[in-house]
Fold this sequence. Notes:
41 strands; 43% strand
Amino acid sequence: MSVFLLGKMNRRFKPFITLLCMVFGLLIQAQTVTIGTGTSTQRYPLAGYYGFERSASLYTASEINLPAGGSLLSVAWNATASTNFALPVKIYVKPVATAVTTISAQNWASAIGGATLVYNGTLTNMPTGWNTVTLQTPFYYNGSDNLMVYVENNYGGYGTGTTAGNAFAYSTAASKHMYIRDDSNPPTGDGTVTSDRPNIRMTFGPAPACPPPGVITLTSATTTSAGISWTAPSPAPAGGYEIYYSTSSTAPTAATPPSQTVATGTSATISPLVANTTYYIWVRAKCDATNQSWWVGPISIHTAYCTPTGGTSSTQYYLNNVTTTGGISNLGYTANSYTAYVNSTAPFSAIPSATLTMNLASNMPSSFSSFYYYVWVDWNNNLSFNDPGETILATTNYAATGTATIPIPATTPPGTYKVRTATSYSGNINSCGPAPYGNYVDFALNVIALQPCSSAPPSNIAVSNVTASTALVSWVPAIGATYVVRYKPVTGTTWSTITVNTTLASSQLLSNLLDQTQYEVQVATVCGGATGAFSPSVTFTTLALNYCTAGPTGNTSTSGYINNVTVTPTNAPIMVSNSASDGYKDYTADPTRLVILQRGGGNTNKISVSKYWPGSTSSYMEFLHGSISTETEFLMLLKES
Length: 641
C-alpha cells in the first residue's frame, strides 16, 4: 500500500515521504541506553540559574555497552521538577580513548576542542520526566570509545529560576563530571570536577551506510596554513575523504562542494590561508562516487596567536619580573609600568632533556601582596595553548610569586616555541584573556639541537646572571662530551680553570670574581679523552658592589661614638682615621683613609677601633669590609663594653 501511495502522490512530496521512511526505519532499529540510577538531584546539565552554565560528563564504553556502535540520535536527562523559561542550549559530543576515565579541570574552549556540535537550539518550559533532545546532527559512535557529552547553556545576564532548576537526577561517578558557570559573560576559567554525573538516556540508530571519520585534530598551524588529521571509520571509505573550510561557521550541507580531497591517508595540509583570520574546518568520508558520510566538525583555527586582553578593570597589576634558570641563555625580564600585552624579545634558549625553572613576580598596589600566576607553552606550534601538556602553571591559590617547572622532552624538535606568561589578581584566566586585573607577557623559547661530540669548542657560549662576584657561563653541549672552562680578568695574565665532568652539562657558575671588573671566559670540549682548542673569548663585566645605607637605631647623640680606627697592615702604610660624632659616615671616597691589606696566610694585618663614651659602659658592634677581594669579606667583628 505504501508503495502504491508513493507512486500516486504528487512529485513534490516524494522526497519528504522518503525521508520519513528513513527516519521511521531508524526508529524501528533504535536502541536506548540508560546510564545512572541515582536519585539525588542537581540543576545540571540544563540550567539557567547563572547567566552562563556549562556541564561536561564522561560515559564509558562499558556503560554504553554497544560494541557494534551506531548513530547517536538523541540524549535525555531526567527532571524531577518543571521550569517555565526558554533556555538557549548547545550540545557537543566527543569520543575519547578508553584509557581516559576521568575529567581534568579545564576551560570550556579546551574542553570542547575537537567535539562535534550536535544540537543548537532553545528548550522551552521543560517538564518533569525524561527531557529528550533530538540531535540535529546524528553522531556516529564506533562502539569502543568512551563518550564526552558537553552541554552549554546561554540564558545570559544574571540568569533565571531557582538554584535547584529542574532538579535533574544524578549518580556518583568519580571525577566524571565538570561544571563551569558565570554571570554577565561566558566563563573563561577552569571548571570544577565532581562525581555528580547526570543520569542520561541515549538513543542509537544503526550505523550509517557510509560511516563518517572520527575526531578531527589540528596538528600544526602557521599564519598561512594548517595541518589536520582524523581517525578513520571502519570500514575505511574506498573513495577517501573530502574537506571543507570557510571563514564562516555555517556548516556545509550534503550538496556543498568540498574545498579539497584526500585520496589516501587521514591527514591533510590546508593552504593557502590568510593570516590573522579564523577558519572552520569539516571532513567527511567518501565511500563511492555518490555516497558520502555527513560532515564532521568543525574545528576552528585562527592563523595567528590570539592577542590577550588585560587590565579591563584595573591597570595596577602586571608582571614586573620573569627569570629562568637551567637554560643555555636565561630570561631576565623586568618591567616598571603596566602594558596589557608584551611580546618580549628577551633571549631564552635550552636543549632537549633540560628542565627550566621560571620565576614570576608582579607589581602590586600597596594593599595587595599576592596573585595568581600562569605559564603556557605551545609545544606543537599550532598557534594555540589549549592542547594537553601546554598549561605549565595555573596556580589555584594566591601567592606573592610563582614558580613554573618546564621540562623539555628529549624528543622535542629543535625550533622556536611560544611561551606565554600571565598574572591576575582575580585568578581564573585563560591564555587569550581577558585578565581584568592583570597582564600577559610572551617569550620565545629556542630549543637547540644537541651537537655530536667533536674536538671543536661548544657553540652559543653566553654569560648571564652577572653579579658583583659571580657569573653563569653557558653553552650548547655535545653528546658524550665534558668541558674545561677558564677565565681571567681581561688585563690579567693567569687563567683560573674549572673542569666540568657532568654529562650534557651546559653551564658553569664562576665565583669569587672582582667587582666592577671586565673578564674573559673560554670553553674547550673534551671528546674521547682529548681536549680540543679553547673557544674565542666571551667578555663580561661584573657589577659594582651595592651596600645598604647604615641606619643606627640606638642612641645617636654625641655621648657615644667611634672616634678612631687604626689599620696596621703587612707591607703597606698605616691608615689612621679620627672622627667625631655621626650616626653614619662613608669614607670610601677619601684617599687618605684607603685600607690596603695583603691576602694570604702568615700576614699580621691589625685593625683597632676606639670609642668615645663619657658614661660607665657601652656596647656596640662594627663590621669592617676590605677593599680587596677576600675569601671572608667581613674582616672583623668587634664587640666591646
